[in-house]
Amino acid sequence: MSCSRRQSAWSPPDSVSRVSGIVYLVGAGPGDPGLMTRRSLELIAAADAILYDRLIPPGALDGARADAELRYVGKEPGAPALTQDETNELMVELARAGKRVVRLKGGDPFVFGRGGEEAEALAAAGIRFEVVPGVTAGVAAPAYAGIPVTHRDAASAVAFVTGHEDPGKPGTALDWEALARFPGTLVFYMGIKTLPLIAERLAAAGRNPGEAVAVVERGTHPGQRAIVDTLGGIAARVAAAEIRPPAITLVGPVAELRETIAWLERRPLHGEVVAVTRARAQASGLATRLRELGAEVVETPAIRIQPRPVEGELREAIGRIEEYSLVCLTSPNGVRLLFEGLGQTGGDARALAAATVAAIGPGTAAELARHGIRADVVPERFVAEALVEALASVPVEGRRVLVARAAEARDVLPEALRKRGAEVDDVALYETVAEPLGDDGRAALDRATYVTFTSSSTVRFLIGAGAELPPAARVVSIGPVTSETAREHGLTVDVEAERHDVEGLVTALVADAESRRGALA
Ligand code: SAH
């Protein structure tokens, strides 16, 4: 059967088909960047213009195109950046100019996000639009606090309620008797200032003053706080704890389940702020592992990798790489840049077919594997001395050896190989240069409870640039060489990894955090 001639019952008005622009009303979720939908990230990456609110997750716009127009249109309480009408007009204008516009909102765009009004305005103007739901705070913040909004035994309905309205003023839109009678969980958005009145009104209308209430501040963010009390007691507790917006108030027996279900606080690095000082391009693996374990990670890169141009000595070495009987690589960056250089000189992995290939550690070996080379030698401990030992059985006397690495690397490896009679070419693929910390970086570092150093250069550049670590922060080093440099720079090393790689560093940090928590308990 062919459908090609079927007329659709609905055809867009002329004004719609004429414009090529489009607006996406997109929910960005409650704050944890991991809760952004795949669709939202795709649309952000493709957008010509992004109009965003205040409550979007940190880094939500990182994937935007460099030439995209990013515009804050949020409404600070009391100080609107743009009025709602101006925001609507701006969306229409941009779409009429043929742009792909993302209107990015916290949580879900249609849950207290004025997304409904914006969609109406777009429809009225004949602008094409799509709606991309997001994870709403009223479900996510309780979930991160260990509270299911429904439960077979404790709540078979849930109501989303605005706490924005002044419950004292006559003619309020909320029917307090109906809410008091509602057979399920009540979730109030925007109700922190009005919480005392909300609690009072609900109790006066017949809700049990002994019923459990939870307030979740900055739900799903690293600094999330949650308080559980009763309807009668919650307002005083919240005032004493100085809870501030954004916060969700949840009324219902499900709040009692937090005691059993709370999971966030039980993660091994909950409450820790860990500074990662390695180059931004390399930080993600370590940062991801730490976040998985519950830490808040602040990236305070001290260094940046600056590739050397493939010319002169380096170009020569890469151009005749077939002639080396042993090739040693001492970092994943080195591997990546060696293969880039090979590509530039017209070669590929086959140039290494006859050579013995040595990697200093599993990260370097993994990068080699990504380029189709299985390392022949990987030492157990990932320092130059261990690589020297591991190479003891590899014949080098009278043979050509290539050591390709950072410009500022130690000479242990080439010297040891020369001593054994090898003809060593020691070439630099890149330099490690300082990355200035900046005010944001300094402020982030100040909050750190752990500062991680994954190489001597991270110590040298961070401390050398005059950065001061917060006195209570614990210093974590990836291994003895880095620790030595740290001590030379006046630091006390609190934790040293036994295995000198990312996993080893994470393991040591977690063990330290757990033993300290144990000591406090
Ligand atoms: N569209 C959003 C809600 C916007 S109204 C959504 O679907 O989540 C703003 C209110 O949402 C805040 O006043 C607060 O009550 C709630 N909120 C938003 N983010 C929150 C968070 N991370 N934790 C707790 N409450 C949050």
End-to-end Cα distance, whole Å, is 72 Å
Query: Helix fraction?
Result: 25-40%
Main sheet strand line-up: 3-2-6-1-7
Strand content: 15-25%
Query: Mean of the pLDDT scores?
Result: 92
What class do helices, strands and sheet pairing give? alpha/beta
Question: Outline, from the CA principal axes?
Answer: elongated
Number of distinct beta strands? 22
Task: Report the sheet with the most strands, covering strand number, pairing sense and barrel closure.
Answer: 5 strands, parallel
What is the tally of helical segments? 19
Q: Which value, in Å, is the CA radius of gyration?
A: 29 Å
Are any ligands bound, and if so which?
Answer: S-adenosyl-L-homocysteine
Low-confidence runs (pLDDT<50, min 5 residues)?
none
What does this structure look like?
The chain is of the alpha/beta class and 521 residues long. The protein is 34% helix and 20% strand. The chain is built from 19 helices and 22 strands. The strands form five sheets. The chain has a five-stranded parallel β-sheet, with helices on both faces. The chain has a five-stranded mixed β-sheet with strand order 8-9-12-10-11, sandwiched between helices. A five-stranded parallel β-sheet has the order 14-13-20-21-22, sandwiched between helices. A hairpin with a 2-residue loop joins strand 4 and strand 5. Helix 12 packs parallel to helix 13 (362-370), helix 14 packs parallel to helix 15 (412-419) and helix 17 packs parallel to helix 18 (480-488). The longest helix has 19 residues, at 502-520. It is elongated. The mean pLDDT is 92. The chain binds S-adenosyl-L-homocysteine.
